[in-house]
Amino acid sequence: MPSETGASLTVVDVAKLRVLKTISLDAGMRPMGTIATADGKHVYVSTGRSKMVLAVSTATDSVVGSIEAGQRPWGLALSKEGTTLYSANGPGNDVSVIDLSPAMQIRQRIAVGRGPWGVALVARP
Question: Mind listing the pLDDT tens digit for each residue in 66-99?
Fold first, then answer.
């Protein structure tokens, strides 16, 4: 769980409903949104005013990658294959398309209108 004002992430055991650990982030980080990979190996975290998206390893509970995603990244979505991350960048009025492999790189920015807060992916028939 992100703590926007605490510059941290909280790891929760959802089966037992208890806090396991708090992961401190760099000063100034304001974690907003999170999304986990299907295999549970990574959690991606948007950081709002910090402009970054972080990759956190669940094996080590540490940040293993980052990228400047855009102006105030908030909501995140992950492709079914887990190879592409989408970041809604509020005041930037766009969505960043981030290629996750081999390293995090912006592939494209899509203009989407005023102040996007989130991203939803829908499979087309």
Answer: 999 999 999 999 999 999 999 999 999 999 999 9
Q: In the β-sheet with 105-111, what is the strand arrangement from edge to edge?
A: 73-78, 84-89, 94-99, 105-111
Task: Confirm whether 117 is domain-assigned.
Answer: no
Write out pLDDT tens, residues 1-60: 788 888 999 999 999 999 999 999 988 899 999 999 999 999 999 999 999 999 999 999
Alpha-carbon gap, residue 78 to 20, rounded angstroms: 25
Rounded alpha-carbon distances, angstroms, from residue 58 to 9, 11, 28, 34, 82: 12, 9, 22, 13, 15
In a domain, 52, yes or no: yes
Distance separating alpha carbons of residues 117 and 22, to the nearest angstrom: 25
Residue 123 DSSP one-character state: -
Q: What is the CATH number for 88?
A: 2.130.10.10
Asked whether the CA dihedral 35, 7, 97, 115 is positive or negative, the reply is: positive
